[in-house]
Amino acid sequence: MPNWIVWGLTLYGLAALWVSVAAPLGSPVSRREPVCVILLVENSGQIVEGLLRFLFWWGYCHGRDLWVTVVDFGSSDDTLSIVRGYARYVPHGIDVRVGGAAGFSAEDIRRQFRQPDRVPVVVIDARILSPSRSG
Predict the structure, then answer these.
(1) Which letter, b or e, does each residue of 33-54 get, where b requires 16 or more Cβ atoms within 10 Å of its Cβ?
(2) pLDDT for residue 132
(3) Which H or E element spans position 29?
(4) What single DSSP character describes residue 117?
């Protein structure tokens, strides 16, 4: 076997060992208060999974649990199936609400889902309107 293959496999093994040992050491010991995220979606299938991955990565890096509520305003694409599929891999799950808040503004939704005062609430509007509705 050529030398470069042996070195490559050795480096890969060392990297895997480092990740398995160092990752638990780098996880936050003391968690900060959770953050309530309200994600407004409509036909957001193209961006919703990336957005959810980013949110939970941010929460992990900052030592915060995220309570995510996804409010769908009547998607006609695969947005809800993506959210429900991703929710299986999230520790707290994702609260999915469909159509109930369709006429509300972001501030109304923030008040509706308000958690205790110490918990910050973030509203993210990720709606992508179809060309027939946007103009």
Answers:
(1) ebbbbbbbbbbbbeebeebbee
(2) 56
(3) none
(4) T
Tokens at 135, concatenated: 């103009």
C-beta atoms surrounding 82 within 10 Å: 20
Whole-model pTM over 0.70: no
8-state DSSP, 90:
S
pLDDT in tens, 24-55: 555 554 567 788 888 888 888 889 999 999 99
Cα–Cα distance for residue pair 28/128, rounded to 1 Å: 35
pLDDT at 54: 92
Q: Given the structure tokens 């496999």, which residue do they identify? A: 9
- Spatial separation of the C-alpha atoms in residues 109 and 47, rounded to whole Å: 21
Residue length of the chain = 135
pLDDT at 29: 46
- CA 84, CA 41: separation in Å to the nearest integer? 13
Distances from the Cα of 23 to the Cαs of 9, 26, 107, 108, 120, in angstroms?
21, 5, 38, 40, 28
| pLDDT of 115 above 60 | no
Please tell me the distance from the alpha carbon of residue 116 to that of residue 125, in angstroms, as a whole number: 22
